[in-house]
Amino acid sequence: TSMITYKMYSCDWTKQSHEFKKLMLLIMRKSHYHYQFRVGGLFLVDRVLLTK
């Protein structure tokens, strides 16, 4: 998840539109949230498992 923030910040965002910058900031913020859910009430799935 720290790589998401790093990669987003490393792109050439300074020349992008205001809308792009807002979306980029939203993605960077959301990438720090911890979330998990159960599939079929049995399996615990989190962001790490989804991105493998």
Automatic annotation (TrEMBL):
<keyword id="KW-0552">Olfaction</keyword>
<keyword id="KW-0675">Receptor</keyword>
<keyword id="KW-0472">Membrane</keyword>
<dbReference type="GO" id="GO:0016020">
    <property type="term" value="C:membrane"/>
</dbReference>
<dbReference type="GO" id="GO:0005549">
    <property type="term" value="F:odorant binding"/>
</dbReference>
<dbReference type="InterPro" id="IPR004117">
    <property type="entry name" value="7tm6_olfct_rcpt"/>
</dbReference>
<keyword id="KW-0807">Transducer</keyword>
<keyword id="KW-0812">Transmembrane</keyword>
<dbReference type="Pfam" id="PF02949">
    <property type="entry name" value="7tm_6"/>
</dbReference>
<keyword id="KW-1133">Transmembrane helix</keyword>
<dbReference type="GO" id="GO:0004984">
    <property type="term" value="F:olfactory receptor activity"/>
</dbReference>
<protein>
    <submittedName>
        <fullName>Uncharacterized protein</fullName>
    </submittedName>
</protein>
<keyword id="KW-0716">Sensory transduction</keyword>
<dbReference type="GO" id="GO:0007165">
    <property type="term" value="P:signal transduction"/>
</dbReference>
